[in-house]
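Task card 7
Instruction: Convert sequence to structure tokens.
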Amino acid sequence: MAGQGPPVDDSNSVITDDDFSSGGTAIRIASVAALGGLLFGYDSAVINGAVDSIQEDFGIGNAELGFAVASALIGAAAGAMTAGTIADKIGRISVMKIAAVLFFISALGTGFAHEVWTVVLFRIVGGIGVGVASVIAPAYIAETSPPRIRGRLGSLQQLAIVSGIFLSFAVNYLLQWLAGGPNEPLWFGLDAWRWMFLAMALPAILYGLLAFTIPESPRYLVASHKIPEARRVLNMLLGEKNLEITIDRIKESLEREDKPSLRDLKKPTGGIYGIVWVGLGLSIFQQFVGINVIFYYSNVLWQAVGFSADESAIYTVITSVINVLTTLIAIALIDKIGRKPLLLIGSSGMAVTLITMSVIFANATVNPDGTPSLPGASGVIALVAANLFVVSFGMSWGPVVWVLLGEMFPNRIRAAALGLAAAGQWAANWLITVTFPGLREHLGIAYGFYGLCAVLSGLFVWRWVMETKGVSLEDMHGEILHHEKKPTTKA
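Output:
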């Protein structure tokens, strides 16, 4: 994408970063919105500390256990698909509050479950909250952020997600240590693994309460014809500068787009808007590089090198810390060098590290129990490659995809298109998660596939993804629609 939007008659109508009265206000409200990502990360990863205990307590087989682990992803896909449409009807803030309630219900229901299907039910409830949060936070942050720092604020979503993953691993480890094991009683006669889920109730309450302290998205308010309220919110963000011009430009961008509906992801001339396919492609590639294999099944890798189960848990925490630190790198760079360069750098790094792991595991010896054995230098190289893969992902595809999904879609279809893209992401996550156990004895093939997807992700970005750094949403979306509606025949 070019850096300029469509021509405008009044040179003063272009809204710049100088128009924003206080970046601090935008940072504060973006931080609250991103708390949904913290719960998103916590809920996604908390199951890791409880897997063996759930299987032991409820006497279930691997198939039932696998479904219980993956059930949250089913809820996440459903939540992502519906969140956008609901947000366009009742507002972004109301949907955040609903997500907080879903997280709270999931925490209590799973913590007190007395059979595996109760766990599945409340994991699905929590998954719906995850899906909702994955759609609302990036959309809301993009709609309330100054162009100059929109990328950094959008990256707060990914920072919150990886922080939530780290928090869940740390809490799980602490509770397990206090009780002497995940399946040992801790407080009030409840096993430690149950407290792992119950602990999520606290950040869920905090998220719900803080949602009452931030304003509704001005773009949603204009779309809902609540102009006085939109003017008040814009005054908070912009001060007294260019309020009416900003409102007029939002109105214009909304008027030239279709009404909010999944049906309106289709162009008037037929077919789906190209930008929707780009968003869906970004979401799928983000998961098909296999990042969640590292977090869901990292013990296989650590134990293959000779670490014990307890040591493997500690190294999993270390990997999550690396993920947090590299996300900070992305926040520092995303508004300086742009979204597209970061994605291309990340794809290159992921391709090299994944192919390295594929070669090493393809040549690994297999123990009698089916686990790979990596003696000597090969084990060290595999561990280094795994962590460099996390670095490559954490500084690029992790945060940048969420930023792009929040800002790349036109105003009228943003929530619906983001919902579709996020649902595709969760479906891809589910597919990778459920297929990996069957590939544990063929890790060379598994990592080879993820490496191929990393290569294809770079080609996809190079060909189809447009740079959005520093461009206002209205300018960017005007240009998108201009290109989408161009006739295919020559004039």
